């Protein structure tokens, strides 16, 4: 069975296939040309990685009877949807054939792991969850309730050492000179450069990643996202500032949660399987646009997390300069909340006129 370095998207496994050096004209699975081939008849380098990952799964027949049905899935779907190991161009049959060939021995001893539904037993193990879940009761909603209505500044509903560890896996470096954008709805004349940055402390209102009074510079990676994020209306004028980064910085890239490889050395696969959903929720919550009916209290859970990330130190200095997250208004866009606004300097402002808007709706 042959497949290639393009069939796999996992960042740890790809270089292993490339390192084998077997360059061929085309891949029999994905059809890509001039690729590095992994041939299960002659190579065995990947087997151990998959066997280790498979260890966290238990076949349906061996799971305790109270294990929730909705947490049972086919291994193929786990490998593609939870772990994003294979290219999404591959069909589930192709992924199935690849893992069966890679783990041929395991298949002989335990075919139900591959052919029946499987589950992660610890997902239903209260003791394990207590020690390893990012959220104490394993529920985002409980955490939200706790910080909104019970204990705002010293919540014991979130395991901060676990959050700290994850941040180190999703670090992203931005180099000096990087350009990002911030927009403000303005008049036709636009705002001068010195009014395009984050407002002064006494005028700062609450945002997804900052409490009232704490300055934070919200930037986007392109003009479109900027216009979407400020929710400009039809015929509005929008001043868009171009911001240049003054020094190299490290941010926590929440978007990268889905792409942390389970094969990183020393990485706790089981713990990650349990927390991935919570981490994705944090990314989504920070990027979520508020509706008019929402209250500022709805910002508190993500402010709590942003404040914690801001407090992480490395050798006595702040480790992270901000958080990067997906825009939920412009799905291809990226946003950054920068904790130290002075890291960026506004170098130019242009005024745009919004000529057209597109509304999309669904009946509820
Ligand atoms: Zn391929």
Describe it.
The protein is 30% helix and 21% strand. With 364 residues, it is α+β, with helices and mostly antiparallel strands. It folds into 3 domains: 115 residues, no CATH class; 38 residues, no CATH class; 186 residues, no CATH class. The protein has a 5-stranded mixed beta sheet with strand order 7-11-14-15-9. Helix 3 packs across helix 4. The longest helix is centred in the last third of the chain and has 19 residues. The radius of gyration is 24 Å and the shape is globular. The mean pLDDT is 93.
**Uncertain spans:** none
Helix count, per DSSP? 12
Instruction: State which percent range the strand residues make up.
Output: 15-25%
Number of strands: 16
Mean pLDDT: 93
Biggest sheet features: 5 strands, mixed
User: What is the general shape?
Assistant: globular
Structural class: alpha+beta
What is the terminal separation in angstroms? 48 Å
What is the helix content?
Answer: 25-40%
Task: Give helix and strand order, one letter per element, not per position.
Answer: EHEEHEEHHHHEHHHEEEHEEHHEEEEE
- Rg is 24 Å
**Spatial order of the strands in the main sheet?**
7-11-14-15-9
Bound molecules: zinc ion
Task: Please give the domain count.
Answer: 3
Domain RES: 192-350
Protein name: RES family NAD+ phosphorylase
Pfam family, one: RES
């Amino acid at each position: 069975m042959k497949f290639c370095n393009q069939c796999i998207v996992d960042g740890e496994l790809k270089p292993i296939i490339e390192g084998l050096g077997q360059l061929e004209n085309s891949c029999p699975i994905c059809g890509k040309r001039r690729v590095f081939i992994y041939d299960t008849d002659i190579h065995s380098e990947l087997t151990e990685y998959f066997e280790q990952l498979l260890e966290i799964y238990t076949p349906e027949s061996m799971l305790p009877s109270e294990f929730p049905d909705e947490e049972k899935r086919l291994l193929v779907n786990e490998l593609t949807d939870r772990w994003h190991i294979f290219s999404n161009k591959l069909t589930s049959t192709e992924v199935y054939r690849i893992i069966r060939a890679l783990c041929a021995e395991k298949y002989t001893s335990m075919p139900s792991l591959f052919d029946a539904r499987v589950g992660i037993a610890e997902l239903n193990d209260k003791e394990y969850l207590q020690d390893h879940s990012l959220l104490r009761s394993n529920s985002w909603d409980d955490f939200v309730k706790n910080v909104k209505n019970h204990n705002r500044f010293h919540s014991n509903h979130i395991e901060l050492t676990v959050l700290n560890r994850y941040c180190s896996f999703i670090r992203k470096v931005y180099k000096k000179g990087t350009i990002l954008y911030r927009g403000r709805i303005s008049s036709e004349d636009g705002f001068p450069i010195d009014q395009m940055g984050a407002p002064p402390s006494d005028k700062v209102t609450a945002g997804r990643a900052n409490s009232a009074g704490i300055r934070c510079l919200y930037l986007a990676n392109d003009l479109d996202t900027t216009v979407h994020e400020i929710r400009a209306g039809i015929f509005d004028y929008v001043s868009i500032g171009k911001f240049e980064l003054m020094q190299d910085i490290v941010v926590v890239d929440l978007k990268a949660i889905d792409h942390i490889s389970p094969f990183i050395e020393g990485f706790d696969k089981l713990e990650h399987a349990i927390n991935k959903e919570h981490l994705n929720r944090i990314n989504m919550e920070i990027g979520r646009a508020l509706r008019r009916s929402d209250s500022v209290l709805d910002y508190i859970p993500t402010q709590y997390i942003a404040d914690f990330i801001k407090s992480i130190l490395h050798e006595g200095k702040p480790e992270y300069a901000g958080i990067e997250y997906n825009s939920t208004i412009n799905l291809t866009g990226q946003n950054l909340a920068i904790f130290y606004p002075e890291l960026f300097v506004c170098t130019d402002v242009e005024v745009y006129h919004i000529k057209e808007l597109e509304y999309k709706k669904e009946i509820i």
